[in-house]
Specification:
alpha/beta; two-stranded antiparallel ribbon; about 150 residues; five-stranded mixed sheet; Nucleotidyltransferase, domain 5; elongated; 2 domains
């Protein structure tokens, strides 16, 4: 905001009035520059996500915890992940290498084996993704996440 004397006040009547003027041109320039910056960065972010990042992961619909839409069979493989990160397969604690071997054996028996990952609520998300990637690497593409039914 600029303060100054009214133009021509000294010449006409000697009135020393003060005027206030808001110059919005610099403000408009700043907003236009910010708009351009946001447009450029948002287009870069969108293009980087559609590159390899979004297609590299698994597409998983998060479970609602309602009625189960997957009916388990005897040939399915159920893997439990405990809060401390231990893997349980068939009631026995196994290592990652033993799990890889069991997944390969399941693939050899039936390529359509469903892998059900049952993770405790306190398990780190990365551990669940690691188990799912092990199954995917072994050639088992049918994956499910075990949930408990929600109370109605």
């Amino acid at each position: 905001m600029a303060l100054g004397k009214v133009p021509g006040a000294d010449e006409v009547g000697g009135d020393d009035g003060v005027f206030a003027e808001i110059n919005i041109t610099p403000l408009t320039d700043i907003f236009l520059v910010l708009l351009i910056i946001f447009m450029v960065t948002s287009s870069v972010i969108v293009s980087s996500q559609t590159g390899g990042g979004a297609k590299a992961g698994l597409k998983v619909n998060l479970p609602k915890g309602g009625v189960a839409d997957v009916v388990p069979t005897a040939s399915d493989l159920s893997i439990a992940i405990l809060t401390d990160g231990r893997l349980v397969l068939g009631g026995n604690v196994v290592s990652s290498d033993e799990l890889k071997q069991a997944l390969a054996e399941a693939r050899a028996k039936n390529p359509d084996t469903l892998v059900v990952v049952q993770a405790d609520e306190g398990v780190v998300h990365g551990k669940v993704v690691e188990v799912m990637e092990l199954a995917k690497t072994a050639g088992l593409a049918q994956l499910a996440i075990g949930v408990r039914e929600s109370k109605k």
